[in-house]
Amino acid sequence: MLSKAIEKALNEQIVNELYSSNAYLSVASYMDSEGLKVLSAYFFRQSAEERGHALKLLHYMLDVGGNVLIDDVKAPMPTFKSVEHAVQESLNQEKTVTEQINRLMALAHKECDYATASFLKWFVDEQVEEISTTNELLLLVQKAGDNNLLLVEDRLLKQGVTLSRAQLPGGDD
Ligand SMILES: [Fe+2]
Ligand SMILES: [Fe+2]
Description:
By secondary structure, the chain is mainly alpha-helical. The protein contains five helices and no strands. The protein has helices at about 5-35, 35-65, 85-110, 115-145, 150-160. The longest helix is centred in the C-terminal third of the chain and has 31 residues, at about 115-145. The radius of gyration is 17 Å and the shape is elongated. The N and C termini lie far apart (about 45 Å). The chain binds fe (ii) ion (2 copies).
């Protein structure tokens, strides 16, 4: 059974993850408009992952008989000054989500809700990974500079980012 406070916090986190998903759609679209198809594909995948996080939370709530309430999702930043700016904003968003997850975990412990705390551990680990990979990408973009972003794209291709949209929701090729 979920307490009202945990239920409210989980519902809020679903909206936070949906916001992240939309923020990455904005970044992916910006990258595409800059002709950077690999970076665009990378962020479309990030967006799909964030939607996955929202669904993971939602299904957990359903599993434990929680009341799911999807609230408004605020609009993400519509465009960016540069590729570096877009990646920096992505890192900032991941840091914000890490704080949100930490607060949620602290609440679960405060309420002695160990099932929710155990469930949230996956998100704690995921945030470590997300901060690390986004930070790495930011360093790479900074090192390359505006004129060598194609080198960043080459590196991402070597790391296994694919241009195929086939595995993405809405993908058609
Ligand atoms: Fe997430
Ligand atoms: Fe994330």
